[in-house]
Amino acid sequence: EFPEDRMYEDKTATFAQATFGWSLEDIGMQIADMAGSAKETTYSMGDDAPLSALSERPHPLFNYFKQRFAQVTNPPIDPLREGVVMSLAMTLGKKESIYKVSERGARLIHLESPLLNAAEMEAIADLAKPENGGFVQDTLSTRYALEDGPTGLKKALDALCDQAVVAVREQNVEVLILSDMAADQDMLDQTTYIPPLVAVGAVHHRLIKEGLRMDTGIVVETGGAWSTHHFACLVGYGANAVHPYMAFETVKQWYEAPKTQKMMAAGKVKQSTLPEAQENYRTAVENGLLKILSKMGISLLTSYQGAQIFEALGVGNEVIDTCFTGTTSRIGGV
Question: Where would you find the membrane-spanning parts of this chain (predicted)?
Answer without folding.
Answer: none
